[in-house]
Amino acid sequence: MTVKRFGEGSDLDQEALIVFENFGITVYLAQLYEGFLSNMLTGLERLGAIEIPQNTRRDSIGYVHENLGSMLRILLDQSQIDRDTVKLLRKAHFQRNLLVHRFMLEHIPDMLNSAGRRSVNDKLANLRKNIRTAMHIAMQVSTNVWKELGIDPDEAERKIQEMRRLAKESDFEGLAEQ
Description:
71% of the residues lie in helices and 0% in strands. It is built from 7 helices and no strands. The chain has helices spanning 14-47, 68-78, 83-101, 103-106, 114-148, 153-169, 172-177. Helix 1 (14-47) crosses helix 2. The protein starts with 13 loop residues before the first helix and ends with a helix. The relative contact order is 0.13.
């Protein structure tokens, strides 16, 4: 099956489709920011550098599984981050919430003409820039923390690829019938 664009065949013009695609990419970066922040907090906890509150939600393998705001509060309460970085991380958090909860609804009238779509796209570019920078900071810190714990990102990726290969080669239907 080929990948099909959701807007294909709709009454949306090419500019509108580009804006929606850029919106999706920006939301994806916000999800990466959240994921790397979770990795960073979990790694810092394992290093003994911070304490995660007992009532903090965890995923099935023990990683912090909270919303972005809660994770930022844990990090900022227990770390010594410079003022500019704190400002950037908080701004990206605010922008992520704006993006996910109301950005497109607030800009519906702007999507009706080409000048408005360009304006919306420019606003998305600004959100993307800040969120991407925050994501990059969280990624870099996370990578360094896990390296300090003895986890080489390249080796981890090789192990993941090997598990995927083995899973593809396995006879899951045969196992399920036993």
